[in-house]
């Protein structure tokens, strides 16, 4: 349920940014929600007791996306 809501938020923010052609205003928020979506997906994979690479890699990628989001947010 949380993944669906986060996915809808990311799609809405990205679509609005594409339609209005204002790519820099909503980019930190879109990246923040995208990082949260990737983090939730990675944690869900780890909770399924899958000893795969996908869960850990998703968490690493989400941390990188959070870092980029904070960096962009501070530059504005």
Can you walk me through this structure?
This protein has helices at residues 2-20, 27-47, 53-75. With 76 residues, it is mostly helical. Helix 1 (2-20) packs antiparallel against helix 2 and helix 2 (27-47) runs antiparallel to helix 3 (53-75). The N and C termini lie far apart (32 Å).
The total count of strands amounts to 0
The chain-level mean pLDDT equals 89
Q: What percent of residues are in strands?
A: under 5%
Shape: flat
Fraction of residues in helix: over 70%
The topology string of helices and strands comes to: HHH
Major β-sheet, in short?
none
The helix tally amounts to 3
Give unreliable regions as ranges: none
Cα-based radius of gyration, to the nearest Å: 14 Å
Structural class: mainly alpha
**End-to-end Cα distance:** 32 Å
What's this, in brief?
This protein is mainly alpha-helical.
Write a concise keyword list for the protein shown above.
mainly alpha; 76 residues; 3 helices
Element layout with pairings:
Layout: H1 2-20, H2 27-47, H3 53-75
Helix pairs in contact: 1-2, 2-3
């Amino acid at each position: 349920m949380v993944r669906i809501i986060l996915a809808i938020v990311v799609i809405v923010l990205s679509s609005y940014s594409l339609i209005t052609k204002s790519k820099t205003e909503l980019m930190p928020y879109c990246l923040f929600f995208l990082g949260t979506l990737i983090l939730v997906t990675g944690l869900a994979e780890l909770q399924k007791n899958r000893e795969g690479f996908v869960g850990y890699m998703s968490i690493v990628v989400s941390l990188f996306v959070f870092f980029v989001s904070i960096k962009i947010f501070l530059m504005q």
